[in-house]
Amino acid sequence: MNWDNIDAEMTPWRTRVKNLQTQLGIGASKGCFDCDHFKSCHASISNQPILKGDWTYVGHKYGQALVGGKPAKILFISLDRGGQGNGYEKFKATQQGFRTAAYEHENSHMGGVDVELEHLLDETSPEDRCQQFALTNSVRCRRKSGSMRYEATRIMEQNCESYTKAIIRILKPDIIIAQGDNPRKSMCRLFSPIIVTRYRGQASAEIGRGNIGSGADVLFLLTAHPAFYARRGFPWSEGDPPPEEIEQAIQQAREIYSGVRQTHSIEENNVSYQANSSHYRQRDLFFNTNETNAPGAYHNMFNQGVIAVYGYGGPAIFNQCIAGQRVFAYVNGMGILAVGHIVDGQAFPDDTVFHQPDEYHVSVQWETIVPEHMGVTFQEVIQDFGYHLPIRKTLCRMYCLPNVTDGIAIELLHRAGGNPP
Protein backbone atom coordinates (compact mmCIF):
# COMPACT_ATOMS: atom_id res chain seq x y z
CA MET A 1 0.00 0.00 0.00
CA ASN A 2 1.44 3.36 -1.07
CA TRP A 3 0.73 5.46 2.01
CA ASP A 4 2.56 8.48 0.59
CA ASN A 5 0.15 8.73 -2.35
CA ILE A 6 -2.85 8.08 -0.11
CA ASP A 7 -1.84 10.86 2.30
CA ALA A 8 -1.14 13.30 -0.54
CA GLU A 9 -4.22 12.77 -2.71
CA MET A 10 -6.66 15.66 -2.52
CA THR A 11 -9.97 13.87 -2.40
CA PRO A 12 -13.14 15.98 -2.79
CA TRP A 13 -13.70 16.00 0.99
CA ARG A 14 -10.12 17.05 1.68
CA THR A 15 -10.29 19.76 -0.96
CA ARG A 16 -13.47 21.20 0.54
CA VAL A 17 -12.19 21.34 4.10
CA LYS A 18 -8.76 22.70 3.16
CA ASN A 19 -10.34 25.44 1.04
CA LEU A 20 -12.71 26.31 3.88
CA GLN A 21 -9.97 26.53 6.51
CA THR A 22 -7.81 28.61 4.18
CA GLN A 23 -10.73 30.95 3.51
CA LEU A 24 -11.42 31.28 7.25
CA GLY A 25 -7.73 31.91 7.97
CA ILE A 26 -7.33 29.03 10.43
CA GLY A 27 -4.95 26.71 8.54
CA ALA A 28 -1.55 25.74 9.94
CA SER A 29 0.58 26.32 6.83
CA LYS A 30 2.51 29.54 6.25
CA GLY A 31 0.25 32.15 4.70
CA CYS A 32 -2.91 30.26 5.69
CA PHE A 33 -3.49 31.81 9.10
CA ASP A 34 -5.31 35.12 9.42
CA CYS A 35 -7.89 34.59 12.16
CA ASP A 36 -10.09 37.52 13.19
CA HIS A 37 -10.08 36.31 16.79
CA PHE A 38 -6.33 35.82 17.18
CA LYS A 39 -5.64 38.97 19.22
CA SER A 40 -8.24 38.21 21.86
CA CYS A 41 -7.16 34.56 22.08
CA HIS A 42 -3.50 35.54 22.40
CA ALA A 43 -4.34 38.09 25.09
CA SER A 44 -6.25 35.42 27.03
CA ILE A 45 -2.95 33.57 27.60
CA SER A 46 -1.11 36.80 28.48
CA ASN A 47 0.51 36.98 25.04
CA GLN A 48 2.70 33.96 25.72
CA PRO A 49 4.18 32.12 22.70
CA ILE A 50 1.35 30.52 20.74
CA LEU A 51 1.03 27.90 18.00
CA LYS A 52 -1.34 29.14 15.31
CA GLY A 53 -4.03 27.15 13.54
CA ASP A 54 -4.27 23.52 12.53
CA TRP A 55 -5.68 21.34 9.75
CA THR A 56 -8.57 18.90 9.90
CA TYR A 57 -7.78 15.27 9.24
CA VAL A 58 -9.97 13.73 6.52
CA GLY A 59 -9.31 10.07 5.84
CA HIS A 60 -8.78 8.98 2.26
CA LYS A 61 -11.89 6.75 2.58
CA TYR A 62 -14.04 9.20 4.53
CA GLY A 63 -17.68 8.27 3.95
CA GLN A 64 -16.92 4.64 3.07
CA ALA A 65 -17.24 3.20 6.58
CA LEU A 66 -20.14 0.82 7.21
CA VAL A 67 -22.19 0.75 10.41
CA GLY A 68 -24.79 -1.99 10.45
CA GLY A 69 -24.44 -2.26 6.68
CA LYS A 70 -25.10 1.47 6.12
CA PRO A 71 -22.43 3.89 4.80
CA ALA A 72 -21.43 6.40 7.44
CA LYS A 73 -19.40 9.61 7.51
CA ILE A 74 -17.83 9.64 10.96
CA LEU A 75 -16.32 12.82 12.43
CA PHE A 76 -14.44 13.04 15.73
CA ILE A 77 -14.40 16.39 17.55
CA SER A 78 -11.44 16.57 19.93
CA LEU A 79 -9.64 19.14 22.10
CA ASP A 80 -6.53 20.63 20.43
CA ARG A 81 -3.17 19.55 18.99
CA GLY A 82 -1.24 20.22 22.19
CA GLY A 83 1.56 22.69 22.82
CA GLN A 84 4.40 20.80 21.12
CA GLY A 85 6.05 21.54 17.79
CA ASN A 86 6.78 24.66 15.78
CA GLY A 87 3.23 25.46 14.76
CA TYR A 88 3.53 25.34 10.99
CA GLU A 89 2.40 22.14 9.25
CA LYS A 90 1.44 21.35 5.67
CA PHE A 91 -1.94 19.82 4.99
CA LYS A 92 -0.41 16.56 3.78
CA ALA A 93 1.65 16.24 6.97
CA THR A 94 -1.55 16.42 9.04
CA GLN A 95 -3.15 13.69 6.94
CA GLN A 96 -0.07 11.51 7.31
CA GLY A 97 0.31 12.21 11.03
CA PHE A 98 -3.24 11.36 12.08
CA ARG A 99 -3.52 8.35 9.79
CA THR A 100 -0.24 6.92 11.11
CA ALA A 101 -1.12 7.67 14.73
CA ALA A 102 -4.45 5.85 14.43
CA TYR A 103 -2.94 2.91 12.56
CA GLU A 104 -0.01 2.46 14.96
CA HIS A 105 -1.68 3.63 18.22
CA GLU A 106 1.08 6.21 18.67
CA ASN A 107 -0.67 7.86 21.62
CA SER A 108 -3.66 7.25 23.87
CA HIS A 109 -5.85 9.65 21.90
CA MET A 110 -5.44 8.03 18.51
CA GLY A 111 -5.33 4.56 20.03
CA GLY A 112 -8.71 5.40 21.54
CA VAL A 113 -10.02 6.61 18.19
CA ASP A 114 -9.04 3.32 16.54
CA VAL A 115 -10.47 1.12 19.31
CA GLU A 116 -13.77 2.99 19.24
CA LEU A 117 -13.93 2.65 15.45
CA GLU A 118 -13.08 -1.05 15.70
CA HIS A 119 -16.25 -1.57 17.75
CA LEU A 120 -18.46 0.92 15.92
CA LEU A 121 -17.77 -0.16 12.34
CA ASP A 122 -18.64 -3.39 10.61
CA GLU A 123 -15.80 -5.89 10.26
CA THR A 124 -12.83 -3.95 8.88
CA SER A 125 -9.04 -3.91 8.92
CA PRO A 126 -6.75 -1.44 10.72
CA GLU A 127 -5.54 -0.27 7.31
CA ASP A 128 -9.09 0.70 6.33
CA ARG A 129 -10.20 2.07 9.72
CA CYS A 130 -7.43 4.68 9.81
CA GLN A 131 -8.74 6.07 6.50
CA GLN A 132 -12.48 5.97 7.19
CA PHE A 133 -12.95 8.89 9.59
CA ALA A 134 -12.32 12.61 9.90
CA LEU A 135 -11.12 14.51 12.98
CA THR A 136 -11.14 18.18 13.80
CA ASN A 137 -10.33 20.00 17.02
CA SER A 138 -12.62 22.30 18.96
CA VAL A 139 -9.70 24.75 19.55
CA ARG A 140 -7.11 25.45 16.87
CA CYS A 141 -4.46 27.64 18.50
CA ARG A 142 -2.65 26.61 21.68
CA ARG A 143 -0.02 27.92 24.03
CA LYS A 144 3.48 26.76 23.04
CA SER A 145 4.06 24.88 26.28
CA GLY A 146 5.90 21.78 25.08
CA SER A 147 3.14 19.75 26.74
CA MET A 148 0.22 17.80 25.30
CA ARG A 149 -2.03 18.97 28.16
CA TYR A 150 -5.16 20.83 27.15
CA GLU A 151 -4.75 24.45 28.28
CA ALA A 152 -7.20 26.43 26.15
CA THR A 153 -8.96 29.40 27.78
CA ARG A 154 -12.71 29.93 27.69
CA ILE A 155 -12.17 32.79 25.24
CA MET A 156 -10.30 30.47 22.87
CA GLU A 157 -13.06 27.88 23.13
CA GLN A 158 -15.78 30.43 22.39
CA ASN A 159 -13.90 32.03 19.49
CA CYS A 160 -13.33 28.69 17.75
CA GLU A 161 -16.92 27.43 17.92
CA SER A 162 -18.04 29.12 14.72
CA TYR A 163 -15.13 27.50 12.87
CA THR A 164 -15.97 24.08 14.28
CA LYS A 165 -19.56 24.54 13.12
CA ALA A 166 -18.44 25.50 9.60
CA ILE A 167 -16.15 22.47 9.34
CA ILE A 168 -18.90 20.15 10.55
CA ARG A 169 -21.34 21.49 8.01
CA ILE A 170 -18.94 21.10 5.11
CA LEU A 171 -18.06 17.51 6.07
CA LYS A 172 -21.75 16.56 6.55
CA PRO A 173 -21.13 13.76 9.07
CA ASP A 174 -23.70 11.09 9.88
CA ILE A 175 -22.11 10.33 13.26
CA ILE A 176 -20.24 12.84 15.45
CA ILE A 177 -18.08 11.56 18.29
CA ALA A 178 -17.13 14.35 20.70
CA GLN A 179 -14.14 13.55 22.92
CA GLY A 180 -13.63 15.60 26.05
CA ASP A 181 -15.46 18.21 28.08
CA ASN A 182 -15.24 21.18 25.73
CA PRO A 183 -16.14 19.23 22.55
CA ARG A 184 -19.15 17.74 24.35
CA LYS A 185 -20.37 21.09 25.63
CA SER A 186 -19.65 22.72 22.28
CA MET A 187 -21.81 20.20 20.41
CA CYS A 188 -24.63 20.82 22.86
CA ARG A 189 -24.34 24.61 22.48
CA LEU A 190 -24.12 24.50 18.68
CA PHE A 191 -26.68 21.84 17.82
CA SER A 192 -28.74 21.09 20.97
CA PRO A 193 -28.90 17.33 20.37
CA ILE A 194 -31.66 15.51 22.21
CA ILE A 195 -29.94 13.09 24.62
CA VAL A 196 -31.66 9.71 24.43
CA THR A 197 -29.33 7.60 26.56
CA ARG A 198 -26.69 8.18 29.21
CA TYR A 199 -24.33 5.47 30.45
CA ARG A 200 -22.35 5.95 33.65
CA GLY A 201 -19.04 4.34 34.57
CA GLN A 202 -15.67 6.01 35.19
CA ALA A 203 -17.17 8.84 33.13
CA SER A 204 -20.46 9.28 31.32
CA ALA A 205 -21.14 8.47 27.67
CA GLU A 206 -24.22 10.00 26.06
CA ILE A 207 -26.07 9.34 22.82
CA GLY A 208 -28.04 12.14 21.19
CA ARG A 209 -29.94 12.93 18.02
CA GLY A 210 -29.75 16.32 16.36
CA ASN A 211 -29.51 18.37 13.19
CA ILE A 212 -26.42 20.26 12.03
CA GLY A 213 -28.34 22.50 9.65
CA SER A 214 -28.15 20.27 6.58
CA GLY A 215 -31.61 18.82 7.15
CA ALA A 216 -30.25 15.35 7.89
CA ASP A 217 -30.49 13.69 11.29
CA VAL A 218 -27.07 13.24 12.97
CA LEU A 219 -26.19 10.76 15.70
CA PHE A 220 -24.04 12.25 18.49
CA LEU A 221 -21.81 10.16 20.76
CA LEU A 222 -20.51 12.35 23.61
CA THR A 223 -17.68 10.79 25.63
CA ALA A 224 -14.69 11.55 27.80
CA HIS A 225 -11.37 12.00 26.00
CA PRO A 226 -9.34 8.77 25.59
CA ALA A 227 -6.53 10.37 27.62
CA PHE A 228 -8.91 10.50 30.62
CA TYR A 229 -9.03 6.71 30.64
CA ALA A 230 -5.32 6.33 29.82
CA ARG A 231 -4.45 8.33 32.95
CA ARG A 232 -6.41 5.72 34.89
CA GLY A 233 -4.48 2.84 33.38
CA PHE A 234 -6.67 1.93 30.41
CA PRO A 235 -4.38 0.70 27.59
CA TRP A 236 -6.50 1.31 24.45
CA SER A 237 -5.06 -1.85 22.86
CA GLU A 238 -6.29 -3.14 19.52
CA GLY A 239 -8.61 -6.10 19.98
CA ASP A 240 -9.61 -5.11 23.52
CA PRO A 241 -13.00 -3.57 24.28
CA PRO A 242 -13.23 0.14 25.15
CA PRO A 243 -14.28 1.19 28.67
CA GLU A 244 -17.62 -0.33 29.58
CA GLU A 245 -19.75 2.81 29.32
CA ILE A 246 -18.30 3.60 25.89
CA GLU A 247 -18.70 0.00 24.72
CA GLN A 248 -22.37 0.04 25.67
CA ALA A 249 -22.93 3.44 24.03
CA ILE A 250 -21.20 2.33 20.83
CA GLN A 251 -23.32 -0.80 20.59
CA GLN A 252 -26.51 1.19 21.04
CA ALA A 253 -25.27 3.77 18.52
CA ARG A 254 -24.79 0.93 16.01
CA GLU A 255 -28.33 -0.28 16.65
CA ILE A 256 -29.85 3.19 16.35
CA TYR A 257 -27.92 4.06 13.21
CA SER A 258 -28.76 0.78 11.46
CA GLY A 259 -32.43 1.11 12.44
CA VAL A 260 -32.49 -1.94 14.73
CA ARG A 261 -33.33 0.11 17.81
CA GLN A 262 -35.80 2.96 18.16
CA THR A 263 -34.83 5.79 20.51
CA HIS A 264 -36.90 6.48 23.60
CA SER A 265 -36.70 8.89 26.51
CA ILE A 266 -33.50 9.25 28.47
CA GLU A 267 -35.29 8.13 31.65
CA GLU A 268 -36.27 4.78 30.12
CA ASN A 269 -32.79 4.07 28.80
CA ASN A 270 -31.10 5.16 32.00
CA VAL A 271 -33.12 2.67 33.99
CA SER A 272 -32.65 -0.19 31.54
CA TYR A 273 -29.07 0.27 30.44
CA GLN A 274 -27.19 2.28 33.02
CA ALA A 275 -23.74 0.83 33.71
CA ASN A 276 -23.40 -0.99 37.03
CA SER A 277 -27.11 -1.88 37.07
CA SER A 278 -28.16 -5.49 37.59
CA HIS A 279 -29.39 -5.60 33.97
CA TYR A 280 -25.95 -4.60 32.74
CA ARG A 281 -24.12 -7.11 34.96
CA GLN A 282 -26.31 -9.96 33.75
CA ARG A 283 -25.79 -9.38 30.02
CA ASP A 284 -25.24 -12.56 28.07
CA LEU A 285 -21.67 -13.61 27.32
CA PHE A 286 -20.09 -14.33 23.95
CA PHE A 287 -17.29 -16.90 23.98
CA ASN A 288 -15.06 -17.61 20.98
CA THR A 289 -13.48 -21.07 21.36
CA ASN A 290 -10.40 -19.60 19.63
CA GLU A 291 -8.92 -22.81 18.24
CA THR A 292 -6.14 -21.39 16.08
CA ASN A 293 -3.58 -23.66 17.71
CA ALA A 294 -5.93 -26.43 18.82
CA PRO A 295 -8.54 -27.31 16.16
CA GLY A 296 -11.51 -29.21 17.54
CA ALA A 297 -11.00 -28.10 21.15
CA TYR A 298 -14.66 -27.11 21.33
CA HIS A 299 -15.58 -30.83 21.39
CA ASN A 300 -13.72 -31.14 24.69
CA MET A 301 -15.44 -28.04 26.07
CA PHE A 302 -18.90 -29.31 25.21
CA ASN A 303 -18.18 -32.81 26.50
CA GLN A 304 -16.65 -31.57 29.75
CA GLY A 305 -19.16 -28.77 30.35
CA VAL A 306 -16.70 -25.87 30.37
CA ILE A 307 -15.36 -22.87 28.53
CA ALA A 308 -11.56 -22.81 28.49
CA VAL A 309 -8.66 -20.49 27.67
CA TYR A 310 -4.90 -20.57 27.89
CA GLY A 311 -2.20 -17.95 27.53
CA TYR A 312 -4.41 -14.99 28.52
CA GLY A 313 -2.57 -14.01 31.67
CA GLY A 314 -4.29 -16.49 33.93
CA PRO A 315 -7.91 -16.69 35.08
CA ALA A 316 -8.59 -12.91 35.09
CA ILE A 317 -10.39 -13.11 31.72
CA PHE A 318 -13.15 -15.03 33.54
CA ASN A 319 -13.74 -12.31 36.15
CA GLN A 320 -16.82 -11.16 34.23
CA CYS A 321 -18.50 -14.58 34.58
CA ILE A 322 -21.41 -14.72 37.04
CA ALA A 323 -23.31 -17.77 38.21
CA GLY A 324 -26.45 -18.24 36.10
CA GLN A 325 -25.25 -15.99 33.28
CA ARG A 326 -26.07 -17.19 29.78
CA VAL A 327 -23.13 -17.87 27.46
CA PHE A 328 -23.02 -18.52 23.72
CA ALA A 329 -20.14 -20.56 22.26
CA TYR A 330 -18.88 -19.48 18.83
CA VAL A 331 -16.57 -21.60 16.66
CA ASN A 332 -14.72 -19.81 13.86
CA GLY A 333 -16.00 -20.83 10.45
CA MET A 334 -19.08 -22.54 11.90
CA GLY A 335 -20.95 -19.94 13.94
CA ILE A 336 -22.64 -20.23 17.32
CA LEU A 337 -22.91 -23.94 18.13
CA ALA A 338 -24.05 -23.91 21.76
CA VAL A 339 -25.74 -21.97 24.52
CA GLY A 340 -25.68 -22.66 28.23
CA HIS A 341 -25.39 -21.05 31.65
CA ILE A 342 -22.37 -20.40 33.85
CA VAL A 343 -22.48 -22.77 36.83
CA ASP A 344 -20.65 -20.85 39.57
CA GLY A 345 -18.37 -18.37 37.76
CA GLN A 346 -15.23 -19.73 39.44
CA ALA A 347 -12.15 -20.26 37.25
CA PHE A 348 -9.99 -23.29 37.96
CA PRO A 349 -6.76 -24.66 36.44
CA ASP A 350 -7.16 -27.71 34.18
CA ASP A 351 -5.26 -28.92 31.10
CA THR A 352 -7.80 -31.33 29.61
CA VAL A 353 -9.00 -29.10 26.73
CA PHE A 354 -5.91 -27.47 25.21
CA HIS A 355 -3.36 -29.57 27.14
CA GLN A 356 -1.47 -26.45 28.14
CA PRO A 357 0.08 -25.65 31.55
CA ASP A 358 -1.50 -22.16 31.77
CA GLU A 359 -5.02 -23.37 30.97
CA TYR A 360 -8.10 -22.34 32.96
CA HIS A 361 -11.74 -23.44 32.84
CA VAL A 362 -15.12 -22.21 34.01
CA SER A 363 -17.97 -24.72 34.36
CA VAL A 364 -20.97 -24.37 32.06
CA GLN A 365 -24.25 -26.26 31.89
CA TRP A 366 -24.70 -26.55 28.12
CA GLU A 367 -28.39 -26.54 27.27
CA THR A 368 -28.43 -26.62 23.48
CA ILE A 369 -25.69 -27.89 21.13
CA VAL A 370 -26.14 -28.09 17.37
CA PRO A 371 -24.11 -30.04 14.78
CA GLU A 372 -21.14 -28.31 13.15
CA HIS A 373 -23.01 -27.59 9.90
CA MET A 374 -26.01 -26.02 11.68
CA GLY A 375 -24.39 -23.18 13.61
CA VAL A 376 -25.97 -19.71 13.69
CA THR A 377 -23.49 -17.72 11.61
CA PHE A 378 -22.18 -14.18 11.85
CA GLN A 379 -24.04 -13.21 8.66
CA GLU A 380 -27.31 -14.77 9.81
CA VAL A 381 -27.25 -12.74 13.02
CA ILE A 382 -26.65 -9.55 11.01
CA GLN A 383 -29.45 -10.40 8.58
CA ASP A 384 -32.00 -11.42 11.21
CA PHE A 385 -31.17 -9.03 14.05
CA GLY A 386 -28.84 -6.33 12.71
CA TYR A 387 -26.28 -7.26 15.38
CA HIS A 388 -22.60 -7.92 14.69
CA LEU A 389 -21.25 -10.71 16.83
CA PRO A 390 -17.98 -9.64 18.55
CA ILE A 391 -16.07 -12.49 16.90
CA ARG A 392 -12.68 -10.91 17.47
CA LYS A 393 -13.11 -11.20 21.23
CA THR A 394 -12.42 -14.35 23.23
CA LEU A 395 -14.93 -13.56 26.01
CA CYS A 396 -17.10 -10.48 26.32
CA ARG A 397 -20.56 -9.24 27.15
CA MET A 398 -23.07 -8.97 24.30
CA TYR A 399 -24.32 -5.37 24.18
CA CYS A 400 -27.57 -5.81 22.31
CA LEU A 401 -31.27 -5.91 23.05
CA PRO A 402 -32.47 -9.04 24.88
CA ASN A 403 -34.57 -10.07 21.88
CA VAL A 404 -31.34 -10.63 19.91
CA THR A 405 -29.81 -13.18 22.26
CA ASP A 406 -33.23 -14.71 23.00
CA GLY A 407 -33.75 -15.10 19.27
CA ILE A 408 -30.37 -16.79 18.82
CA ALA A 409 -31.11 -19.20 21.68
CA ILE A 410 -34.51 -20.09 20.19
CA GLU A 411 -32.96 -20.64 16.76
CA LEU A 412 -30.33 -22.95 18.24
CA LEU A 413 -33.02 -24.97 20.00
CA HIS A 414 -35.00 -25.19 16.75
CA ARG A 415 -31.95 -26.41 14.82
CA ALA A 416 -31.25 -28.97 17.52
CA GLY A 417 -34.68 -30.45 16.92
CA GLY A 418 -36.41 -28.73 19.79
CA ASN A 419 -34.73 -30.84 22.44
CA PRO A 420 -31.79 -29.91 24.64
CA PRO A 421 -28.71 -32.18 24.41
- For the record, the count of structural domains works out to 2
Give the class from helix and strand content and strand pairing.
Answer: alpha+beta
Strand content: 15-25%
Using only CA atoms, what is the Rg?
24 Å
Strand count, sense and closure of the main sheet?
A: 7 strands, mixed
User: In terms of per-residue confidence, which ranges show pLDDT below 50 for 5 or more consecutive residues?
Assistant: 264-281
Output the CATH homologous superfamily of the largest domain. Answer: Uracil-DNA glycosylase-like domain
Question: How confident is the prediction overall: mean pLDDT?
Answer: 88
Q: What oligomeric state do the depicted chains represent? A: single chain
Shape: elongated
List keywords for this structure.
alpha+beta, Uracil-DNA Glycosylase, subunit E, ph1033 like fold, 2 domains, seven-stranded mixed beta sheet, six-stranded mixed beta sheet, 17 strands
Tell me what you see in this structure.
The chain has 421 residues and is of the alpha+beta class. It has two domains: 3-273, Uracil-DNA Glycosylase, subunit E; 282-415, ph1033 like fold (Roll). It is built from 15 helices and 17 strands. The protein has helices spanning 3-8, 12-24, 38-44, 91-104, 108-120, 126-129, 154-171, 181-191, 226-230, 244-258, 266-273, 278-281, 297-304, 378-385, 402-415; strands spanning 50-51, 57-58, 65-67, 70-72, 74-78, 133-137, 142-143, 175-179, 194-200, 204-211, 217-223, 285-288, 306-310, 326-331, 335-349, 359-369, 395-397. It has a seven-stranded mixed beta sheet with strand order 2-6-5-8-11-10-9, sandwiched between helices. The chain has a six-stranded mixed beta sheet with strand order 13-16-15-14-12-17, with helices on one face. A two-stranded antiparallel ribbon has the order 1-7. The N and C termini lie far apart (50 Å).
